[in-house]
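Re: Re: ligand-bound prediction request (bumping)

Still looking for help on this. To restate: I need the protein modeled with iron/sulfur cluster bound, output as structure tokens. Inputs repeated here so nobody has to scroll up.
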Amino acid sequence: MRLGNRKSGGYEFDAKKQVGTAGFKGRHILYMDKCTGCSLCAIACENIADCIDMVKVDKNFPQNKKSIFPQIDYGRCVFCGFCVDACPFDCLFMTPFYELSTTDKRLLVYTPEMLNIYPETKGEFVNFIPDEKSGAHHG
Ligand code: SF4
Ligand code: SF4
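Reply:
Sorry for the wait, this slipped through. Here it is.
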């Protein structure tokens, strides 16, 4: 499902209809041009993983007077999707992208600008090929 010109390819929640659309719960996509900085996503996360910080960015957006946006620490995120449900402005969704592993946990902190860029998979699921000898691997 797409909400207007927004795309996620993963789990979405329609704030007006109050209906969620089943989908893969991978890395988020944040549409900064719609985010008001209301912090409801961060508040929703507080008692789950407390991994959203509202941070200030240099760029100005008319709908976000304080220029504050969510930043997510994927070292703590449990991919529950509650932050997506909490967003009243349909600007935070999830994507099918899940390959986030790194040897440096600092790289797991995704700034608003990073979340604003759609992941490299472009919404396509990765094919896993089962292999009796080496286990599952990418197609
Ligand atoms: S998906 Fe991650 S960031 Fe969102 S509420 Fe759940 S733990 Fe927090
Ligand atoms: S992503 Fe949504 S809930 Fe979070 S600050 Fe922006 S508008 Fe508010």
